[in-house]
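2024-03-11 09:14:02 DEBUG pipeline.ingest accepted 1 chain
2024-03-11 09:14:02 DEBUG pipeline.ingest length=425
2024-03-11 09:14:03 DEBUG pipeline.predict start
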Amino acid sequence: MSLRSGNRGFVLIGVIIFVLALSILGMSLYAVSGYEAAFLGQSHDDNGALYSAQGGLDMVRELLAVPPYRMAIAHSIEDTLGIVSARAWQRMPGGAINDTGVVDFASDSAVTVVVTARAGSQSRQIQASYLPHFQRDFYRRLFTLSGTSLRIWPPQWWPGSVYIDWLTGTTSATVEMGPDTPVLQHSADQSWTSRVIWDATPSVGVDTIPAPDVSGYYASHPTAYAAVEAPNGTGHSLTFTAHTAGTIGYYRSPQPAGDYSYYESGSTLDLYVEGTVVWELPLGFRCDGVTTVHSVGGPATLVIVGSPNLNRVSAYSDPYIGLWFFSGLNVQSGVSVVLASDGQVNVERNNSAYGNVVQSASALAVYCPSVFLGGPVNGRSVFDHPESMDAIIADLESADALPQPRNAAPQGFTMVRGSWQDTTP
């Protein structure tokens, strides 16, 4: 056998080995590419879950900054944008955890938000803590005045008390002012305090105070019910009981009267309130007789929102008065009253109100540009804002049931430095 014939078939074997090597290389590259594709897919899902969780944090933060300000709102974003679960909570004084109720914006305790999101096969859980920004509350005191200072017809004030008489300057009743300053006003003019008797420095705060946005409130809070009017012998009664129990009833007057949304020219007006009621009076309110507020079926809250009518031209129709209790305001026990107006609020007894007369509101909050108070000739005026009323104010605010300050900055949150954490199990 020759040497040439002994090498026969070598090229074929070489080609087979070369093809086998290419096949192995191709299969390896295919396996690697598959692995990279899977890795990229997992990475894509992981990033998607992270972005969704971060978006969830932002959504919860924004939802908590608007009414009803409740922690439970965090759950509303679940099952959207890949969010599996969301929870917000705040540690309250005493150590209790609030994860359903209203955010305490006055607290220095941070709100912690935890969000879990899933994308494809990957899930991420992150959390962050936020310090609440407190918007000044203009309802948690007796009087908050965005315009001129308080006007009182010859009063006498004692520490923590208000004494108001129309002419005599004598009185014997006290008023507890609640936990905040009795008066917070925009005007620096405190000349009225020179007519006030204090045992200590007058408790009057001066600050920049925006007027309540009453016109915007009417637009965003349409009335669903009309108060029911009936004669009461010397005047009329209005009944506010048509709304569903446990809800806030938004009411209008039965019909406008002349230059006012409601004008009682008779002797008395009785208001019967069940639960929580808002009475809207875009053209204002006036009662020439005594206005008395009664509860129906348990504790009640009445919010009266009124505006001045600048087109009033008849006698004694001051176009700048939004709410005018011309012969006094009496609020029965068990009723809280909030008065809000972009005009002046008058609570007074007229000159003919002689005798031992009392006008009293034991749970009252007034927010408006200016207030005029006047007492009877022989009697007294008693106004109070107890600390217990602040819980009622908080509930009203959480339901967006009160006019907000005009052009005021909204509630908000600032992330606590270093609080962002990836807590994925």
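2024-03-11 09:14:41 DEBUG pipeline.report Residues 10-64 form the longest helix (55 residues).
2024-03-11 09:14:41 DEBUG pipeline.predict end
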